[in-house]
Amino acid sequence: MTLDLSLPTAHDDSEAPGKTSKWLAVAPMAFLSMTVAIPLIIIFVYSFLARPELGAGVVWKFDPTHYVKIFIQDRLDGTRSFDTRYLKVIWNSFYYSGITTVATLVLAIPIAMWIATRDPRRRVLLVFLVTLPFWTSILIRTYAITQLLDEKGVLGKIVSFLGYKGHFQILYTPTATVLGLIYTFLPFMILPIYASAERFDFRYAEAGYDLGARKMTVLFRIVLPQISPGIMAGVALVFIPGLGSFLQPDMLGGGKTNMIANVVANNYGQARNWPFGSALSVLLCVITLVATLLLSVAARKRKAKRV
Amino acid sequence: MRTLFSRNRLVNLRNFPFFTAISYLVYFILYVPLVLVIIYSFNQNRTAQIWTRFSTRWYTDVFTNTDVVRSLKNSLIVGSAATVLSTLLAIAGALGLLRMGRKGSTFALGLLGAPLIIPEIVSAVGTLGFFLFVGIPLGHFGLILAHTAFCVPFAMLPIRARLVALDRSSFEAAADLGANEWKIFTWITLPLLAPGIMAGALLAFAISLDDFITSFFIAGPGSTTLPVYIFGMIRSNVTPAINALSTLLLLVSGLTLILSYALSTRTQDRK
């Protein structure tokens, strides 16, 4: 979620609070090595092992075919063919997360700018109201969306009141998945953009108007470039975790709109194919890592250009 | 100078087309689903969306459901233990990071922030594999380990923010007056860090209580947490009892948040 943990640190400052030792950090680092790094290594190892004849788990026998099976299917008659099922799943992850990023961006820029131009005392409350839903369990928020989108619910009634005669079905479709993702990730886009917008010096906008620029010119040529660090941070905070979404496609997509995480979960659950699930997990990690690197390189480039 | 400009800028920026309308719309979108959940929780009908009449039967349902009480207990046990452990680790991490060189702190931050970047589904199945591999039973102990891990970066955020903003002079004064390191730590560092530690602990507790994916994979039969139980309810039997339970949880997290909001604004004022 929050990518940028880097606060200014007092490097080797002899007057640092309490003369603490850097060895203090060894305790949490050792703990996270055990609980985070080792599980990752295990997933990597499992992805190269064979599955048992029966049940879940792994057999300690080298079997690198799981990665191949993501793209190629072994038919029962012994022939092999190109398999697009998992490519579709990978594509879904990028596509749904991408739409979510764009939609949250379009909604977040106006509200972030709007909050940033309110009375400073009201801003705190307005930001608080954005974060409040984020503090409720994601499970409950997703459940709330199922009730909103249900054909028997409010939305269905409004649609039929407006004269729509057909069968109203949004729930358990890809649309519902994306709507759920937008709802979940909206605060993650608003907050970093607001943080940038709040620091924006509106005298630049003034200058633009004085020189005869129109509203949209000021917005696109002056405001947006200035708040681009916030936009980049927001894009990273939405797109990257969006790739690994599990609950929204599961509860709102009705199992039809799988993303990578759903297939991983299924292989560790009902399908009982841990090695294949592990191979997909490794793939998801690689995708996430590459996306993170690309976005941070892009952010750094922007920063370098501005200085 | 400043007021002159600020008056102008308000006039001009209010004029960005549709911004006000979109903002109201966003607030509306954010709250409508939650308000609906609350309204439906008072519906007498078994199907939440079909309103018949006001009733509190689903709340009675929730309070008399022993499984709900048991899973809530599990959530609270795991959440409190993970909060204490992760906050202690986060304090140590934040203090240690302050004294590290640039390279060391980048590496340490990468490791300590890893739970934020790794997709949760991957760490969940990885933890499951790890527990089975080394023979940790699926139960409270394992849940506490896993929850502590992903709570550390959250607990560390406010503690670090507080730490780097601390005024150095108190430490120098204490050192000049002959206080030893332990005394400085307990009498000066900890009290000054207290608001950050409180905020970090609250954050960790909220994150642990809300966690679904990790708990879903590594909770054993006897250690089902509340979100995992709710997920089962949604899967098997959707009634407004889920709405009633959700409303109660909304109330708890809302109150917690308002409390921490009040705490943080108060400490800011004092500063």
Radius of gyration of chain B: 23 Å
* Protein chains sharing the most extensive interface: A-B, 103 and 113 residues
Global mean pLDDT of chain A: 87
The name of the CATH superfamily of the domain at 67-239 in chain B reads MetI-like
Indicate the structural class of chain A: mainly alpha
Counting DSSP H or I runs of 4 or more residues, the number of helices of chain B is 13
- Strand % of chain B is under 5%
* CATH domain class name of the domain at 67-239 in chain B: Mainly Alpha
Low-pLDDT parts of chain A are 1-15
* Shape estimate of chain A: globular
Q: So, the CATH homologous superfamily of chain A?
A: MetI-like
Any guess at the CATH architecture of chain A? Orthogonal Bundle
What does this structure look like?
The complex is a heterodimer of chains A (307) and B (271). Chain A contains 13 helices and four strands. Chain A is mainly alpha-helical. Chain A has a single domain (87-306), classed as Orthogonal Bundle (MetI-like fold). Chain B is mainly alpha-helical and 271 residues long. The radius of gyration of chain B is 23 Å and the shape is globular. Classes of the chains: A mainly alpha (307), B mainly alpha (271). At the A-B interface, helix 1, helix 3, helix 4, helix 5 and helix 7 of A face helix 1, helix 2, helix 4, helix 5 and helix 6 of B.
